[in-house]
């Protein structure tokens, strides 16, 4: 088996995608009234923070943002109650970000099966009752297992199941880059 890696988005492409998404969010929501950005840990948090900064530049006003740990709500865990019992309960951070009756824009780095987003929606419902939930992703690679569709997409990247999409961000990886790893010769 051999692996080939190709860069799909560099720092400039990521910055442009975030700028476009910021404008799309402002247009769709007619501003930022009652909007909250929520990033899914880990890289979704950094993307949500960058998006909040872009929106503040454009609008001249800050938009609240927070982060969400969906670990306790994943369906590959034994149960939500068990995860919470083990002290793995999520919640919003900063704690003063309320989602109740807000337009919540979830942000994740890669959308694949949709199971992480389902877990995030469950976690958000635990935090309050949003007016609506919208989804923004930097890369949509397809292969959904649940009926989940993003409202804002940085880049559509059709993939095979043997390929991987890797998002690297300055905050966690020292560079901004989206790459695809093509695993040649892997049997599925």
From TrEMBL:
Signal peptide: none annotated. It catalyses: UMP + diphosphate = 5-phospho-alpha-D-ribose 1-diphosphate + uracil. One of its GO terms (molecular function) is uracil phosphoribosyltransferase activity. One of its GO terms (biological process) is DNA-templated transcription termination. It is an enzyme of class 2 (transferase). Its EC number is 2.4.2.9. Residues 13-170 form the Phosphoribosyltransferase domain. Pfam families: Pribosyltran (PF00156). A motif (PRPP-binding) lies at residues 104-116. It comes from the Bacteria. Keywords: Glycosyltransferase, RNA-binding, Transcription, Transcription regulation, Transcription termination, Transferase. Transmembrane segments: none annotated. PANTHER family: BIFUNCTIONAL PROTEIN PYRR. Also displays a weak uracil phosphoribosyltransferase activity which is not physiologically significant. Homodimer and homohexamer; in equilibrium. Belongs to the purine/pyrimidine phosphoribosyltransferase family. PyrR subfamily. This is Bifunctional protein PyrR. The gene is pyrR.
